[in-house]
Amino acid sequence: MSSIIYPTTNFKATRTLTIERGEGAYVYDSEGNQYLEALAGLWCTSLGYNNRELVDTASEQMSKLSFSHMFGGKTHQVGMDLGVKLSEMVPVENAKVFFGSSGSDANDTHIKLLRYYFNAIGKPEKYKIIARERSYHGVTVAAASLTGLPPNHTHFDLPFGALGVLRTDAPHYFRGALAGESESQFVDRITNNLEQLILKEGPDTIAAFIAEPITGASGVIVPPEGYYEKVQAILNKYGILFWADEVITGFGRTGNDFGCTTMGIEKPAMMTFAKQLSSAYMPISASVIRGDMYDAMVDQSSSVGVFGHGYTYSGHPVACAVALKTLEIYERDNMFARAAVLGEYMQKRLGEFLEHPLVGEIRGKGMIAAVEMVANKQTGEAFNGGAVGAFAQQACQNHGMITRAVAGSSLAFCPPLIVTEAQIDEMIEKFSKALDDTYKFVKQEGLL
Ligand code: PMP
C-alpha cells in the first residue's frame, strides 16, 4: 500500500512509472529508460531539465538568503527586481504584482483582490465572476469553483455558492456548434448568451470574466476568429473586467509573449501566471492587476488597515531569483520568437494526422496542441469515457514519450520550448506509432 494520497489520480490505479532524473527535453525512469517530455511536465518545464544557469541561480540564492517574507513592511531586492521585470513585460497597464506559489493560489488571490477593490470603490455588490464551461483554473475551493470541469466539482460539493461564479459557454466550435451552424454563427450565439447572462444577473453585480486565452487542461480549445473581439466589446459595454489566466499560455507558449497577444486580447485588467514563470524549477505564481485598481486599494487601506492576505511563500527569494533568471533567459535567447518558428513547424507536422482514421480534430497555436480521437470521423462523435485516451497515453509512454490525455480522448502536446526541430520530428514519429496502436485497440474492442 502506498503512503501517499496521489493528486489527480484514480485511488485504485497502480503506479506505472517512477521518474528519476531529467536532462534537456528528456526524463529517465528508475530503470534508465528515456522519454521525450512532450508535455513539459505539466505544461511548465519550458527550459527543460538540468538547466545549469537555473540550478546555479537557485543554489547561490539559497546560500545568500534562503528565506525571507514580505509581510508587514519587509522586502528583498530579488523580489523587487522580479516585480519590476514582470510588470514591464505584461500588457496590463501600470501592472502591480502579488506573488504566490501556484496557479490555484494566484487565482484565489485574484478573487480576493477583486472583492477588496470593489469594496474599496464602494461597489461591494459587484463580486460575481463569469467563468466558462470546460475551463481550468485550479483546484483550491475557490479556484476549483472557477474551473468548469465536472471531476473537479463532483464529490466536493463545488462550485462554492457564496463565490458567485456564473458559467458561460466554452468557445469550442467542433464540440459546441449546432447542426449546420457556421463558425461565425456559433460565435454570435455564444457571445449573445454571454450578454444575456450579464443582463439577467445585472451588470452591476459582475466583477470579472476569467478566461484562459487558449485552454490547456480542458483540451486545448482555440476559440474561433472574432470570439474575443466580441467578448471584449460586451465586457467593455457593461464595465466588466477581463481576467486572463495565462498559467499555461504565458511566456512564449502560443508563439508570442502571451496568449493575450496571440488571441488579440487587449490590455486585460488582470493576469495570472505560474508554471513557465520559473520554468517550474521553483514553485512561484503571480497575480497581476492594473495600477489604478491597486491605487484604489491603497486609498482604502487608510481606513481598513492591513490587507489581510499573504502566503508564507509570497515572494520566496529563491523562487523569485529563479523566475528572474528564467525571464532573462527567455529574452536573451529570443525564446518567444524561436517558439513562434518551431511552433509553426510543430502545428504543421501534427496537422499530418488529420488524415488518420481515428483523428477528428487538431487544435493548437505555437507550441501547444491537442489531437482529438473520435469514434466517428464523419460525424465527429466522441468516444464514451476515457479508455481510448488512457490507452493512447500509455501507448505513447511505451514508445518513449510522455504526454497526457485531456478532455477524454484528446492527447496534448506542449513540449519544453527548448526542443529542436529534430525532437519535434521524434515526437511525431512516436505519436504516429502510438496512434496506430490505439487504432488497433479501438478496432479490437469494437469501439469504432
Ligand atoms: N490555471 C490554469 C490555466 C492552469 O492550467 C492551471 C494548472 N494546470 C492552474 C490555473 C492551476 O495551477 P496549479 O496547478 O499550479 O495550482
TrEMBL record:
Keyword terms of this UniProt record: Aminotransferase, Pyridoxal phosphate, Transferase
Biological process terms in GO annotation:
biotin biosynthetic process; gamma-aminobutyric acid metabolic process
SUPFAM superfamilies in alphabetical order? PLP-dependent transferases
Q: Name one Pfam family in it.
A: Aminotran_3
* Matches recorded under InterPro entries: Aminotrans_3, PyrdxlP-dep_Trfase, PyrdxlP-dep_Trfase_major, PyrdxlP-dep_Trfase_small
Entry EC no(s): 2.6.1.-
The record's GO molecular-function terms, alphabetically, read:
adenosylmethionine-8-amino-7-oxononanoate transaminase activity; pyridoxal phosphate binding
As for family, the record states: Belongs to the class-III pyridoxal-phosphate-dependent aminotransferase family.
Q: What is this protein called?
A: Putrescine aminotransferase
Species in which this protein is naturally found: Neptunomonas japonica JAMM 1380
